[in-house]
Amino acid sequence: MEKHFPEELLYTKEHEWCRVKGDIVTIGITWHAQDQLGDVVFCELPAPGETIKAGQTFGAVESVKAVSDLFSPVTGKVTERNDDIVESPEGLNEDCYDDGWMIRVELSHKDELDELMSQGDYLKFLEETED
Amino acid sequence: MNERLKRTPLFEAHKQLDAKMVPFGGWEMPVQYSGVIDEHVTVRTKVGLFDVSHMGEVEVRGPKALEAVNELITNDLEKAADGQAIYTAMCREDGGIVDDLVVYRFSRERVFICVNAANRDKDFEWIRAHCASGVTVANRSDEYAQIAVQGPNAEQLVSRFTDTALTSIGFYHFAEGRVMNQAAIISRTGYTGEDGFELYVPSGLGNELFLALAQRGQDVGVKPAGLGARDSLRLEARMCLYGSDISDDTDPISAGLGWVVKLDKPSFIGKDALLRVKTEGPAKKLVGFEMEGAGIARHGYPIMVAGQRVGEVTSGTKGPTVGRAIGLGWVDARHAEAGTELGIEIRGKLIPARVKKGPFYKRAK
Q1: B201: three-class secondary structure by DSSP
Q2: Which residues are bridge partners to A76 per DSSP?
Q3: Could you read off the pLDDT tens digit of each residue along chain B, which spans 365 residues?
């Protein structure tokens, strides 16, 4: 997978992305997150019906060598989970934006989206945090 | 905070091979090149190269060098032959492990000790302070680059760089020879569960040798491998990691290393304490376990039985070759029996696991 960060997505400092369609937000991890982890071997995600809260952990991804918590960008009820990724988490290293989406959430507080970064801001953030 | 990280003599080679570098115990080390799983599988099926130059080397010489070192270690150097290496613990008087070592018996007058990277200075001081007078103890860590060549094709690859007859070096034996025309110790040892060699060469040869091994071994499938694969390989083979599974606060018998504790030796530092552990039985034991539910145990996760916390995970990963999540952890001795059901607390949830005896992976001989 080529290093890329789609323009239409919103981003967090914990390297998650959001795709917003009406009240439904699709959440995943960025190219940078999967690159830092290396080979992903495990992915734990909340089931549909569970509620997740902005800024709190909603799951975890693990590589052979490390665990990384997933932080929710928004608050809301999970409507869908990508079970293909739970079954075959290595898919996150192949395509983290389309086939590698993680969950869909029904947004409770629309204004939380204002806290997220645009692609441009995220690229700047990556530049600043890399030495 | 920003203490400068030490670099091994192979730093330039890692840069050329595009390694991902990370801080590890004060060292800037390659954690991966092509990817942890790819490197792991390469070592199991072909051959991998590791920079292990961060390990330290201490040499003890003198007319009674063997006796002096034998007093410091739990295994018995008298039982080894010249040209043989032994794995051992080095203990304090109370039985706590100062370090786990590979000790090379060159002769009764010359003993060479390979120590863990993080323990270089501690071990050198310990050995110097506790060696009988009449021997010289030298810290030779900076003189060597150490490269581990591990995997079924290791012998074929190393043979291209030396005239030493490798087939005549048995497992846990070594020879002095020449590698790329420079003096080297060629040791048939490793930390992966595979056949292979550890090459101790002059530090100045490190970059050139590592790159040459990587280049001239392409037809036998060689790849450089980093700390990530080193950890998953050693855990599948169920080898302890000092500082994680074992430490100053643990003794070798409780840690399952009783096979390197020779209580029939006349004396060695820690013998009385270890005799006591042996007689009374350990209060806690280091056990291996396999996960039976979905989840990966990691260092520090609680181990539970019937709602009680009975221990803690010290190593854990998903083993790429064994294909399941495995780990090591300390538990109260009454829960250490093979087959015992444990619960590992992972992010607030209890995931079932089962105590397993012996290595998770064993190569076909």
Answers
A1: strand
A2: A52, A107
A3: 456 899 999 999 999 999 999 998 889 999 999 999 999 999 999 999 999 999 999 999 999 999 999 999 999 999 999 999 999 999 999 999 999 999 999 999 999 999 999 999 999 999 999 998 899 999 999 999 999 999 999 999 999 999 999 999 999 999 999 999 999 999 999 999 999 999 999 999 999 999 999 999 999 999 999 999 999 999 999 999 999 999 999 999 999 999 999 999 999 999 999 999 999 999 999 999 999 999 999 999 999 999 999 999 999 999 999 999 999 999 999 999 999 999 999 999 999 999 999 999 999 87
Q: With contact defined as beta carbons under 8 Å apart, do B316 and B296 qualify?
A: yes
pTM (2 d.p.)? 0.93
Q: How many CB atoms lie within 10 A of CB B272?
A: 12
Q: Does ipTM come in above 0.85?
A: no
Instruction: Determine whether the interchain pair A42/B32 forms a contact, defined as Cβ–Cβ distance below 8 Å.
Output: no
Residues of B in contact with A65 (CB under 8 A): 31, 36, 228, 231-232, 317
- Structural domains of chain A ordered from first start: 10-124 (2.40.50.100)
Query: Domain B1-281 carries which CATH code?
Result: 3.30.1360.120
CA distance B153 to B140: 30
Is B53 in contact with B8 (CB distance < 8 Å)? yes
The answer to whether the beta carbons of residues A41 and A18 sit under 8 Å apart is no
Q: In the CATH scheme, what is the code of domain B283-356?
A: 2.40.30.110
The rounded Cα B275 to chain-centroid distance in angstroms is 25
Distance from CA of A22 to the nearest CA of B (A): 32
- Nearest-Cα distance to chain A for B309, in Å, is 22
Same fold: B1-281 with B283-356? no
Return the residue in A40, A64, A85 with the most chain B beta carbons within 10 A, the one to mutate for interface testing. A64
Tokens at A109, concatenated: 């507080």
Is A42 in contact with B294 (Cβ distance < 8 A)?
Answer: yes
Name the residue among A44, A62, A64 with its Cβ closest to that of B228.
A64
Domain map of chain B by residue range?
1-281, 283-356
